[in-house]
């Protein structure tokens, strides 16, 4: 099959790119490995997930949220929004297609993409002038190598497979990772009466969602150092009332929260109630990393030993682009993230693009989609067809 633009991935970035291309009447096809669009939101997100960001940062091109939508949308409302988006713009991805291999064919000057049809098990070949990578920053769950992990008799899950604390009631559970997923999963486990411990290795800012919203709104107009000062004043005022969280093992980076995000990609943690549970002694904090595992017993880098029944790895994701995109070097580095800095990160060579890799969530994906479609339109308008 041949088309003008091939998009790999039907998450928010791929869907938005397709909609923007359709607005310019540019033919395009989306290939998606799952049997549904936005699989991260429909299949891989835990039950109690609320969007961490305010609704104005979680919308796609041509369809802003209405005034009656709450500022912080629960997952279901966002999924409903995506459903309406797909229906309204009549987007029809080709489902059950896992892209396995893509190369740029120099003689034809086109992209050649091989996808496995997971229903028939056949390999299908697609050709296109333009290729848009929209497989997401969260391609594969990342589980670090730990000595002795194979001897652990209990359940080991990655946060992307975690659904609810219901299955862990009464068990001793270790959550590895103090980012947004780890802190929220700890909260959820504790609510379901699991004996929960969270292992925190790197310092992180822990803010309220209102403080993050304040910061993100100010960032539109002010430099990041100034925004960080304002947000930290608000956070410090809160800590004067409720106590300093670093006493609880939640250490802060030296840089401000938005500078940290900008320079290291590590988002501030938005507290959903976990801090209160830590303060009340309902959730145990362990600082450092896992040294080794021997059966049920974990030995931590600080020398402490403790037994667990289950481990949840909230240790983030890695981009899986380089596994299937053989000529990734036209747009990506080896880690599957863009070579070029923002704002032109989305544009590669040989008509290769990426959308959704700016570490700016849904708003970033939406912006990329607009930029990519505009660029493709310009190229098509200036070359003879
Ligand atoms: C737990 C969690 C909470 C988050 N909360 C927020 C939030 O509140 N606000 C926010 O803005 N962002 C949030 N994010 C970030 C979020 O991932 C993105 O904003 C958004 O989903 C990115 O969209 P995307 O289309 O780039 O990637 P994805 O949503 O990951 O979509 C990629 C799609 O590509 C498909 N795919 C992958 N590989 C292949 C292949 N080889 N062949 C075919 N198809 C493939 C996948 O099945 C998937 O459907 C969160 C992320 C996680 C993990
Ligand atoms: C995709 O596969 C699932 C099961 O594997 C099947 O139920 C569904 O009908 C398939 N969808 C398409 C569009 O082929």
From TrEMBL:
Statement: the UniProt record of this protein carries the keyword Oxidoreductase: yes
Domain of life where this protein originates: Eukaryota
Cofactor(s) named in the record: FAD
Pfam families given in the database record: Pyr_redox_3
Cross-referenced InterPro entries: Auxin_biosynth/cation_transpt, FAD/NAD-bd_sf, Flavin_mOase
Annotated metabolic or biological route of this protein: Plant hormone metabolism; auxin biosynthesis
Keyword Transferase: no
Catalytic reaction list: indole-3-pyruvate + NADPH + O2 + H(+) = (indol-3-yl)acetate + CO2 + NADP(+) + H2O
SUPFAM superfamilies noted in UniProt: FAD/NAD(P)-binding domain
Keyword annotations: Auxin biosynthesis, FAD, Flavoprotein, Monooxygenase, NADP, Oxidoreductase
Record-level Gene Ontology MF annotations: flavin adenine dinucleotide binding; indole-3-pyruvate monooxygenase activity; NADP binding
EC number: 1.14.13.168
GO biological process: auxin biosynthetic process; response to ethylene
Recorded family membership: Belongs to the FMO family.
Protein name: indole-3-pyruvate monooxygenase
Species of the source: Eutrema salsugineum (Saltwater cress)
């Amino acid at each position: 099959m041949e088309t003008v633009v091939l998009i790999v991935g039907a998450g928010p970035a791929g869907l938005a790119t397709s909609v923007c291309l359709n607005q310019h009447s540019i033919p395009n096809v989306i290939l998606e490995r799952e049997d549904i669009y936005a699989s991260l939101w429909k299949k891989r997100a835990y039950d109690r997930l609320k969007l961490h960001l305010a609704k104005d940062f979680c919308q796609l091109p041509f369809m802003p949220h209405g005034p009656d939508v709450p500022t912080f949308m629960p997952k279901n409302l966002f999924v409903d929004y995506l459903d309406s988006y797909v229906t309204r713009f009549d987007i029809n991805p080709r489902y059950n297609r896992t892209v396995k291999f893509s190369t740029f064919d120099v003689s034809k000057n086109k992209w050649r993409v091989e996808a496995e049809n997971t229903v028939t098990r056949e390999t299908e070949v697609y050709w296109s002038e333009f290729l848009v990578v929209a497989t997401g920053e969260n391609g594969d769950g990342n589980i670090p190598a730990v000595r002795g992990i194979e001897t652990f008799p209990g359940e080991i899950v990655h946060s992307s497979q975690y659904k609810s604390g219901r299955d862990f009631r009464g068990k001793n559970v270790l959550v590895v990772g103090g980012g947004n997923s780890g802190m929220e999963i700890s909260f959820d486990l504790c609510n379901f009466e699991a004996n929960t411990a969270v292992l925190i290795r790197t310092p992180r800012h822990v803010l309220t969602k209102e403080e993050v919203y304040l910061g993100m709104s100010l960032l539109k107009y002010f430099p990041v150092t100034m925004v960080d000062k304002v947000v930290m004043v608000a956070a410090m005022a809160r800590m004067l009332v409720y106590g300093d969280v670093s006493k609880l093992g939640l250490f802060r980076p030296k840089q401000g929260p938005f500078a940290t995000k900008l320079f290291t990609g590590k988002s501030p943690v938005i507290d959903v109630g976990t801090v209160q549970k830590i303060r009340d002694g309902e959730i145990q904090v362990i600082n450092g990393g896992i040294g080794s595992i021997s059966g049920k017993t974990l030995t931590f880098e600080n020398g402490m030993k403790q037994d667990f029944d289950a481990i949840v790895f909230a240790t983030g994701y890695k981009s899986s682009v380089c596994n299937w995109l053989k000529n990734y070097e036209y747009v990506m580095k080896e880690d599957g993230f863009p070579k070029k800095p923002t704002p032109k990160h989305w544009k590669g060579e040989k008509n290769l693009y990426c959308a959704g890799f700016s570490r700016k969530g849904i708003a970033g994906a939406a912006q990329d989609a607009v930029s990519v479609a505009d660029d493709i339109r310009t190229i098509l308008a200036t070359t003879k067809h």
